[in-house]
Write a structure and sequence with these properties.
The structure is a single chain. It is built from 15 helices and two strands. By secondary structure, it is mainly alpha-helical. The N and C termini lie far apart (66 Å). It folds into three domains: 2-110; 114-228, no CATH class; 298-358, no CATH class. It has a two-stranded parallel sheet. It is 70% helix and 1% strand.
């Protein structure tokens, strides 16, 4: 009987169309997302130098392969939840592919400022494959790369300044390669006697040159033209078409002008509400004075925790009395609070919410 059942199952599988089997396997897009994340994570660790032709080529193939894989799935046959997962994965792949292509373009434009771009990557690739290294040859490579790095550094002062964004991008490329060279060096140093004897001094010289060149590149932009505040954020005009494309990746179905109009409408509403509140506490339309009053309205030192508890309970009551939100009992039971350190208060001067109120 057992053999008969096994034979029957085998017969059914044998006569089931391959496409139907594929559809059954592909029906759970959630599983595909898990597989994709694991694949992408493993490859990003394998090809750790993100700004390299090797990385760009491998991840370009990854995104294309997965988009093709999604294209083989019958979207209409998926349930609603799987359709949402499908669209989110597809959007993530297309966005990653687009920004990878943008990085490739910028990488190609700045490649001439990278010391020994190909031979360095060849060395890093060999290390990741566990290839046995000849110490004298590696020392010669390091000496040659050091000479090239020093030459690029010396020529930098006669090079047209970069934009701050490009300067940071190039400095990041140099940093990635310097760290990968250091990792490879530490892999062999102390374990391979020939490598250890030959390479120590050339490595130290190369590391110093790369660090100095990286710092010089990082600052090789018009610092008066591109002044920044303490955040270090510099605007990079990209144009309406590019903004619309990036809004699309975020699944925001408005163009820039519509968003500006919405912001102005919401600002006007907020401003009027602020005036109402100012009048309610006796300051008329002088909302700045009302703000100062509120800022100085605080509980005595040491009484903040009871205040936070009261505010939390007030918020829960407000939502539940108006049937605005269903709050699970465990959520009301499990929230807790911790104090904000002086360092954290510089970043978040009021409080942070969530499961832990700070």
């Amino acid at each position: 009987m057992q053999n008969l059942i096994l034979f029957s199952v085998a017969a059914v599988l044998a006569f089931t169309p391959q496409k139907e089997l594929s559809a059954q396997v592909s029906s759970s897009v959630e599983d595909l997302i898990t597989i994709y994340r694991e694949d992408a994570g493993a490859l990003s660790r394998k090809y750790a130098v993100e700004h390299s032709e090797q990385y760009i080529s491998r991840f370009s193939d990854l995104y294309s392969d997965w988009l093709n894989r999604l294209g083989e799935i019958n979207f209409r046959e998926l349930d609603r939840s799987s359709q949402v997962d499908y669209l989110l994965l597809k959007n993530d792949l297309e966005r990653s592919q687009y920004f990878l292509q943008a990085d490739q373009k910028r990488f190609n434009e700045l490649k001439k400022y990278i010391p020994a771009p190909q031979s360095v990557m060849d060395f890093i690739t060999q290390r990741r494959s566990g290839v046995s290294m000849e110490g004298k040859q590696v020392a010669n490579w390091f000496n040659a790369w050091n000479t090239e790095t020093e030459a690029l550094h010396a020529a930098l002062k006669n090079t047209t300044v970069f934009s701050k964004k490009d300067a940071g991008f190039l400095a990041n490329i140099i940093e990635e390669r310097r760290e990968a060279i250091e990792e490879a060096y530490e892999f062999y140093y102390g374990y391979d006697p020939d490598f250890t004897w030959w390479v120590e001094e050339p490595f130290n010289a190369l590391e110093t040159s790369l660090e100095e060149y990286e710092e010089a590149v990082q600052n090789h932009f018009d610092q008066e033209k591109e002044q920044t505040d303490e955040s270090g954020i510099v605007g990079s005009p990209i144009g309406e078409e590019e903004i619309i494309r990036r809004l699309g990746f975020e699944m925001i179905s408005y163009n820039p002008q519509q968003l500006i109009d919405i912001a102005n409408e919401q600002y006007a509403w907020t401003y009027n509400e602020m005036l109402k509140a100012s009048r309610e506490i006796g300051y008329g339309d002088d909302w700045k004075a009302a703000l100062e009053h509120v800022k100085k309205t605080y509980v005595p030192a040491g009484e903040q925790p009871p205040l936070v508890k009261d505010l939390a309970e007030e918020a829960v009551t407000f939502l539940e009395e108006r049937d605005l939100l269903t709050i699970p009992p465990v959520a009301k039971e499990s929230w807790r609070m911790v104090m904000l350190s002086p360092e954290w208060q510089k970043i978040a001067p009021f409080f942070l919410g969530g499961e832990v109120v700070r």
